[in-house]
Amino acid sequence: MERLRFGTDERAVARGAEVLRSGGLVVYPTETLYALGADALDPEAVARVYKIKKRPLGKPLSIAVSSLEMLRRYAYLDEKAERLARRFLPGPLTLVLRKKDLPDILTSGLSKVGVRIPADHRALELIERFGGPVTATSANITEEVPPITVEEVLAQLTGVDLILDGGPLDPSRVPSTIVDMVGEPKVLREGRIKREELEAFLG
Question: Residue 8 pLDDT > 90, yes or no?
Fold first, then answer.
């Protein structure tokens, strides 16, 4: 398993993008937790994410993109969802939207997908350099403690190709808030952004 440190190793972002393009798995930091990244358009790479996390195939994976422009390539953004995105993204918010051309294994056969734009320049640089959507699930065994250090990742996961070490992350371990925007908005998981703030913004 290869490990590179952000900030001290200038190869980190380029190497991360290279590994993703080759179908490999990359652990990378976000503003909330360490995430397990794979090319979200590669069914075989996505299948490896499920296997390594011991995640049931019936539980969809979310994706991370680097901009609203990239988001629109892979999901439908209506007026209400775009208002929410422009207010809270980049940030700890995952929007569940109707998907476009994404593999069924990624979304467990569903017609929608969770999408976020991380508020972490390292994650954004990785996704931008790669040029496409990356899986954005936490880098842990399913139902285990979500990791905020590389050491916690290593204690749980084996089979990852590259770890991009961003140092210790937010000790609160609060994940992103998830809002389903297909139909009437519905908060599926309250995280860093509180339900009351979202409801007040949406009216």
Answer: no
